Amino acid sequence: MQAAAFDEHGGPEVITLRKLPVPEIADDEVLIKVLSAGVGVWDVYERQGVLVPEGSDLPIVPGSDGAGTVVAAGSQVTNVGVGDLVYVSATARPKGGFYAEYAAVQAQYAAKVPDGVPAEHAGAMPTDALTALAGLDALSLSAGAWLLIFGASGGQGHLAVQLAKRQGLNVIAVASGSDGVALVTRLGADVSLDGHGDMTEVLARIRDAAPAGVDAILAMAAGRTLDRLTEALVDGGVVAYAHGVRPEPGERPGVVVRAYDGESSPRQLQRLNELIEVGPFVVHVAETFPLGKVREAHQRLETSYLGKLLLTVA
Predict the structure, then answer these.
(1) What is the spatial distance between Cα 119 and Cα 137, in angstroms, rounded to a whole number?
(2) CA angle, 184 as apex, 241 and 139 as ends, to 5°?
(3) What is the pLDDT of residue 116?
(4) Beta carbons within 10 angstroms of residue 89's beta carbon
(5) 307: alpha, beta or left, given left = phi > 0 and alpha = psi -120 to 50?
(6) 128-260: CATH topology
(7) pLDDT at 56
(8) Predicted pLDDT at 53
(9) Would you identify the CATH topology of the domain 2-125+283-312?
(10) Burial, 69: exposed, middle or buried (Cβ in 10 Å; 0-12, 13-18, 19+)?
């Protein structure tokens, strides 16, 4: 099979196309003919040697996220079957990732692509969607509460907006630039604001929308802007951020800070699918690259864009 892989850690230049054997599956695994693969910062960490999948040997085929068709299933697999269109989030994948024509993963990390999500775009969704769901779980807000999502037009943020609305929350989305504001408005945010704008005006609009204060902030980014936005929180309000956000939000009087990680498990995949299938769900893909342009995709990660980046394999 054709695959993009690396034999040493470093910059985008270490990833090359080569022919590798199609992986064989164990009894608890599925073999997937890959349609598309998401491109995320975790792929960069893997390429740099910061995060290396447990049990992996060189050459390493990166790609934690992907979607495709199951072409073989082990004898113990019951949740998906041959012919199913599935998406996968798998950090543990010693037999290689989704930057390849075929990928073998444990079936517990796979779920059928829900209605309403284009098959190709499903490959860009899994890790960010599961992480956004974990962030909402960490906040544990009741329907009707006011949630501010900071970084709302990014990969995790634009999915969090949609999942939060499905949970009955009032969403204030702070996005990047006018195009980011347009995106989160289209996705259903109750209030859409430009985080690059005048912060005094931004805070005034937040207070107009939620005079009693915002109950929580889901932070996909941090820094001075987030520090200002915490002024809109109710006393005892919560800031939740995913591990990896830098600088980490600090504790301050009257604010509770919680970190969270995404979880890829059968239960979370089922919950995610149930929320997605409530209505139209958008995985916004900023740019698509063929597998042969994988280096360019990793270079694009270092720039500003809305939503997700995607590799097409099939």
Answers:
(1) 27
(2) 30
(3) 85
(4) 26
(5) left
(6) Rossmann fold (3.40.50)
(7) 78
(8) 76
(9) Quinone Oxidoreductase; Chain A, domain 1 (3.90.180)
(10) middle
Q: How far is CA 156 from CA 70, 130, 181, 242, in A?
A: 26, 9, 15, 10
Query: Which pLDDT score is estimated for 147?
Result: 98
The three state secondary structure string of the chain is CEEEEECCCCCHHHCEEEECCCCCCCCCEEEEEEEEEEECHHHHHHHHCCCCCCCCCCCECCCCEEEEEEEEECCCCCCCCCCCEEEEECCCCCCCCCCECEEEEEHHHEEECCCCCCCCHHHHCHHHHHHHHHHHHHHCCCCCCEEEEECCCCHHHHHHHHHHHHCCCEEEEEECHHHHHHHHHHCCCCEEEECCCCHHHHHHHHHHHCCCCEEEEEECCCCHHHHHHHHHEEEEEEEEEECCCCCCCCCECCEEEEEECCCCCHHHHHHHHHHHCCCCCCCCEEEEEEHHHHHHHHHHCCCCCCCEEEEECC
CB 125, CB 97: distance < 8 Å:
no
Q: Using 50 as the pLDDT threshold, list the residues of the chain that sit under it.
A: none
Q: Report yes or no: 255 and 233 within 8 Å, Cβ to Cβ.
A: yes
Give the C-alpha separation, 182 to 298, whole Å. 26
What pLDDT, on a 0 to 100 scale, did the predictor assign at position 222? 85
Other Cβ atoms closer than 10 A to 115: 10
Contacts of 200 (CB under 8 A, 6+ apart): none
pLDDT tens-digit readout, 24-45 = 999 999 999 999 999 999 999 9
**pLDDT tens digits for range 46-103:** 999 988 877 778 899 999 999 999 999 999 999 999 999 999 999 888 999 999 999 9
Q: Where in the chain is the domain with CATH 3.90.180.10?
A: 2-125+283-312
**Could you tell me where in the chain the CATH 3.40.50.720 domains are found?**
128-260
Q: Give the pLDDT score at 187.
A: 98
